[in-house]
Amino acid sequence: MKVVVHDLLRLRSPGDLVSPERVPEWARYALCRAPWVVVRRAAVEGKTIPVGVRGQNRRQRFAGFVCLSSIVESVRPQDLSSCEAWKTAIRQEELPAMRALPEVHATLRTSDLSWGPVGSVGFELATHFPITHRTSDLDLIIRRNDLLIPPATLRTLLALIKRIEIRIDLLLETADGAISFLEYASGEPNILLRSVNGPTLIPHPQISALKGERLCPSQTHCLQPSLRSV
């Protein structure tokens, strides 16, 4: 089984999480209620997978590891979008971030992008465990082979972000790491790449392609970069 960052993993038992540190009580409780973890951005050593445990709020995050043999199910973010998992979500109508997904899906499908929801929305769609709040952002990833975005696709993403009324945190994920779409669209000469080796500033891969399509200051409230390591 191959897993990558952002994949959600269901464990055989809450006790399958291992860590050199003491596992906090809230993390034990969270795993007992929903034995799911998310693959975090760190090096995979042998058959040990680096994962994170989610609590009920942003402050409750715990990094640990699981053995490959402890995984009984894995869900990729793009699996959630391809099956339109929000259609059967019990809380779709009451959560603004989840209500936005049909429009996101309709738009990104036309651009043939491999994408999916992550964060609290992705976790809830995969596990059916209510963890998303009414004020939650909509965290999305787009998986790409490289960081070169065609101008037409860039325009589509910018228009979508401007249209959606909630805050979107969009990451462009490649095998080498991820960058914030906000940083990409800003056209800055150097942008932050998040990789298993930590954050690194790299030259913008395609400033010339941006031309007049850069994100204007009035749009930045719609999409905030996140320096969280996942």
Please describe what this structure looks like.
This protein is an alpha+beta fold and 230 residues long. It folds into two domains: 8-75; 77-222, no CATH class. It contains eight helices and eleven strands. It has helices spanning 25-33, 77-82, 96-99, 101-110, 119-127, 151-163, 181-186, 207-210; strands spanning 8-11, 36-39, 48-54, 61-67, 71-75, 114-117, 138-143, 168-174, 177-180, 190-195, 198-203. Strand 10 and strand 11 form a beta hairpin. The chain is globular and about 50 Å long.
Strand order in space, largest sheet: 4-3-2-1-5
Q: Quote the average pLDDT.
A: 88
Number of domains: 2
How many alpha or pi helices? 8
Radius of gyration, whole Å = 18 Å
Beta-strand portion reads 25-35%
Low-confidence region ranges: 212-230
Spatial separation of the terminal alpha carbons: 20 Å
Query: Helix proportion of residues, in percent?
Result: 25-40%
What would you call the structural class?
Answer: alpha+beta
The main pleated sheet reads as: 5 strands, antiparallel
Number of strands: 11
Shape: globular
Q: Strand-and-helix sequence, N→C?
A: EHEEEEHHHEHEHEEHEEH
Give me the secondary-structure topology.
Blueprint: E1 8-11, H1 25-33, E2 36-39, E3 48-54, E4 61-67, E5 71-75, H2 77-82, H3 96-99, H4 101-110, E6 114-117, H5 119-127, E7 138-143, H6 151-163, E8 168-174, E9 177-180, H7 181-186, E10 190-195, E11 198-203, H8 207-210
Parallel strand pairs: 7-8
Antiparallel strand pairs: 1-2, 1-5, 2-3, 3-4, 6-7, 8-9, 10-11
